[in-house]
TrEMBL record:
Transmembrane domains' residue ranges: none
Record-linked Pfam families: Aldo_ket_red (PF00248)
Protein name: General stress protein 69
Keywords tagged on the record: Oxidoreductase
Length: 339
């Protein structure tokens, strides 16, 4: 098993992290325990959740995932697990989170309320990595960091991170932490995959220069790389088939970003490439996502236990230079920059 440190922290994590966002919606508690047990038995010590989960977020379901994960965590030694969770981003972000009556902000009040809720649901007295689910464009980053810093001082949180952030946002936060002597973001959790290699731009440069780790999510690009959207008939229950039927233009736009002519053509070539190298497209995708030096751990997901195995095979499958060049050619020919 390969373990890596997150940023400059003392968090030594497996190179694959078990994501949990379907637990409590498309994955019931019994199946979630099977998935978590399998991941743990295979050497995964890093688990990621959020107060908003499960997806798609609804007022009546938020927090269920943390509750399930908390129950499972009681079956294992607490200090054998690195647990990450997230405070919902501000209501001025990309959507209004259905928590705290949709009045969320990354300020002292909401950070304290959110962490107390997560600690209670996870049934633990500390969180290893506490992350901002997305930035607040109104509250200053200094105010946010001061509130996070208090949690670290109190011992409720060991380290902090950000998510869905930009090169400017990460740099601004990092410099504020330095100048004000506050706990800093040790990680950034952003989308990064075969179909979305944008992180290679300035964000990767910031991470390398400042020793901040990427925790990539959605290495399968929401399941697109599996090839199921390349079929003539798409199952009604898959994520983007559901999103495309949603009345919200925002939700439909998200689906169209992942499922379009360019991504489907690139996926077709990735399927051929995976076959050439004798692995599943899932293994190829996860191996690519965790390949780079700025990555600490790639976050995978599974709705059912049987979906987990191909992701775990990425522990042993390495991206060689020849394969990486072929991947980069596909990205250059079709995808990058993504539309």
């Amino acid at each position: 098993m390969e373990y890596r440190y997150i940023g400059k922290s003392g968090l030594r994590v497996s190179s694959i992290c078990m994501g949990t966002m379907t637990f409590g919606s498309t994955t019931d508690e019994k199946e979630a325990f099977k998935i978590l047990d399998c991941a743990y038995d295979r050497g995964i010590n890093f688990y990621d959740t959020a107060e908003l989960y499960p997806v798609s977020p609804k007022k009546e379901t938020v927090g269920i995932t943390e509750t399930i994960v908390g129950k499972w965590m009681k079956t294992k030694p607490r200090d054998s697990i690195i647990m990450a969770t997230k405070i919902a981003g501000a209501a001025n972000g990309w959507f209004v989170p259905p928590v705290r009556h949709g009045l969320t902000a990354i300020d002292s009040f909401h950070i304290k309320r959110a962490v107390e809720g997560s600690l209670k649901r996870l049934d633990t007295d500390y969180i290893d990595l506490y992350q901002m689910h997305w930035p607040d464009t109104i509250v200053t980053i200094e105010e946010s960091l001061r509130a996070f810093n208090e949690l670290v001082k109190e011992g409720k949180v060991r380290y902090i991170g950000t998510s869905n952030d930009s090169a400017y946002g990460l740099t601004k936060a990092n410099e504020t932490s330095k100048n004000k002597d506050l706990a800093r973001f040790e990680s950034i959790q952003n989308n990064f995959s075969l179909l979305n290699p944008r992180f290679h731009d300035e964000l990767a440069n910031v991470c390398r220069k400042e020793n901040i780790s990427l925790l990539p999510y959605s290495p399968m690009a929401g399941g697109v790389i599996s090839g199921k959207y390349n079929n003539e008939f798409i199952p009604d229950e898959v994520r983007f088939a559901i999103y495309l039927k949603d009345k919200s233009k925002r939700v439909q736009a998200m689906a169209n970003r992942f499922v379009n002519d360019k991504t489907l053509e690139a996926t077709k070539r990735y399927l051929e490439l995976a076959k050439e190298y004798g692995v599943s497209p899932v293994t190829l995708a996860v191996a690519y996502s965790k390949h780079f030096d700025f990555v600490a751990s790639t976050i995978i997901g599974a709705r059912k236990l049987e979906q987990l195995e191909d992701s775990l095979k990425a522990f042993d499958f390495k991206i060689c230079e020849e394969l990486l060049k072929k991947i980069e050619n596909i990205q250059k020919d079709i995808l990058y920059p993504m539309g």
